[in-house]
Amino acid sequence: MDIAKYIDHTILKPTTLVSDIENLCSEAKAYGFAAVCVPPPFVRKAKSLLEGTGVKTATVIGFPFGYSAIEAKLAEVLLALVDGVEELDIVINLVALKNNDWQYLANEINHLMPVIREKGKVIKIIIESGVLTDEEIIKCCELYGAAGIDYLKTSTGYAEKGASVHAVALFKKHLPSNVQIKASGGIRDYAFAKELVEAGATRLGCSAGVAIVKGEQGAGGY
């Protein structure tokens, strides 16, 4: 399967060190991961370490809870763009969603999309599927699919439940074909990663990328 090409090699802990970023980028280059996903203060560092390798630099916006103001998210996006980010993983306002304020969510994405699109960067929207009902997930697929995002992403990894095959399959069924799926949260071994890809995920956000690739090699995957 060559699972490495699906992986966003990720470190987002609040105690991340420069040495952690150096190690992350070194592993990403060695294993041929799709991208690294790093905290916003490390975008410039990761970008410089990965120059010319083909590995993309991603960061998170409104992470991990998503309830920061639209203006705050916009400021985060602008700073990340200045630092050279290529992909932005944006947490939606779950407070708005749980209070059935879909107009707020539409307004939020309509403010953020044009700035990112103007720079030709990739937009991934995180909806935290583990704490949503199927109906809420389907509504998200409809809203963000219509908005024209690049990826709908399952989870931050900070909620009580992360990625699931059920959520990925639901995304696959209800998203337009041009919107891809990123699964993240609790992906720690090759078997689960493979299940998620087979269900429709085209990216996997995980901190255990090296273990997953070694698991595939051990399984005779390549």
From TrEMBL:
GO cellular component: cytoplasm
MF-aspect GO terms: deoxyribose-phosphate aldolase activity
Key words, A-Z: Cytoplasm, Lyase, Schiff base
Active-site residue list: 89, 153, 182
Catalytic activity: 2-deoxy-D-ribose 5-phosphate = D-glyceraldehyde 3-phosphate + acetaldehyde
The enzyme's E.C. designation: 4.1.2.4
Pfam families linked to this entry: DeoC
Biological process (GO), any one: 2-deoxyribose 1-phosphate catabolic process
Compartments, record wording: Cytoplasm
Annotated pathway: Carbohydrate degradation; 2-deoxy-D-ribose 1-phosphate degradation; D-glyceraldehyde 3-phosphate and acetaldehyde from 2-deoxy-alpha-D-ribose 1-phosphate: step 2/2
Top EC class for this record: lyase
Function in brief: Catalyzes a reversible aldol reaction between acetaldehyde and D-glyceraldehyde 3-phosphate to generate 2-deoxy-D-ribose 5-phosphate.
PANTHER family given in the database record: DEOXYRIBOSE-PHOSPHATE ALDOLASE
NCBIfam families membership: deoC
Stated family: Belongs to the DeoC/FbaB aldolase family. DeoC type 1 subfamily.
Stated name of the protein: Deoxyribose-phosphate aldolase
Species for this entry: Niabella drilacis (strain DSM 25811 / CCM 8410 / CCUG 62505 / LMG 26954 / E90)
